[in-house]
Amino acid sequence: MARGPRYRVPRRRRREGKTDYYKRYRMVLSGHPRFTVRRTLNYIWVQVAVAKPKGDHILAAAHSRELVKKFGWKGGTANTPAAYLTGLLAALRALEKNIKYAVPDIGLHRPTKGSMVFAAIKAANDAGLKVPMSEEVAPSLDRIRGVHIAAYAKMLKEKGLDKTRFSKYYERGLDPEALPSHFDEVKKTILAYYSSRTSVREGEQV
Predict the structure, then answer these.
(1) Phi, then psi, of 44 in degrees rounded to 5
(2) For 62, phi and psi rounded to 5 degrees?
(3) Residue 136: which CATH number?
(4) Angle CA(116)–CA(120)–CA(126) in degrees, nearest 5?
(5) What is d(CA 43, CA 23) in angstroms, rounded to the nearest whole number?
(6) Domain that holds residue 93
(7) Whole-number Å distance between alpha carbons of 105 and 46
(8) Burial of 64 per CB tally in 10 Å (0-12, 13-18, 19+)
(9) What is the largest CA-CA distance in the chain?
(10) Residue 10 belongs to a domain
């Protein structure tokens, strides 16, 4: 009896490099929300999602563009400091909805030590949302604060090349060498904003 080819065409989203269905299947079976981290050339977005028959239901989310629009961020929107702050923002919003635990979902990103996706997951744990991750793969505090970017900017400034490489920073009014202190300021602003929201809600409940 003749038989057809044994080769199976992968599902569309797998062919497009968007979904690893085996990993997704394992995460969905856990029954826990997923802390998803995705990155494009220009932005980072983080979502806390649960799987439903008709597709994912987003419980909380944050986009790195929000850092610029709402919290005065003047640095890049697709680097390690931005990834941390975006993860922090998403985690705080998840905690507001009483979500305490989520499984990490980095999609098709490679699990490289110190990568941006782990910066976002570290931020979630720092905020109080438990997302399992080994501390060994997390970026260092200096990298999260952008010390490496500031050092690179200083080196370029000595060669007179910083205005080209960091033109967006200067347009927003930030000297890239001041990025670590600026990161601290924006992080403090985000934490203060959500702390005040929590205080207001607790006051309303009394």
Answers:
(1) -130, 135
(2) -150, 145
(3) 3.30.420.100
(4) 135
(5) 24
(6) 18-205
(7) 10
(8) buried
(9) 76
(10) no
What is the distance between the alpha carbons of residues 59 and 67, in angstroms, rounded to a whole number? 19
Helix, strand or coil, per DSSP, at residue 183? helix
pTM for the complete prediction? 0.85
Contact 37, 106 (CB under 8 A): yes
**Domain count of the fold of the chain:** 1
Q: What is the chain's mean pLDDT, rounded?
A: 87
The tokens for 48 are: 């806390």
Label residue 51 by pLDDT band (50, 70, 90). Answer: confident
Range list of H helices, the chain: 12-15, 21-30, 64-71, 80-96, 116-127, 141-145, 147-159, 162-165, 167-171, 179-205
State yes or no: pLDDT of 157 exceeds 70.
yes
Q: Tell me if 12 is assigned to some domain.
A: no
- What would the two tokens of residue 181 be? 């202190």
Residue appearing with tokens 């309303």: 204
Least confident range of 48-57, 90-99, 165-174, 177-186: 48-57
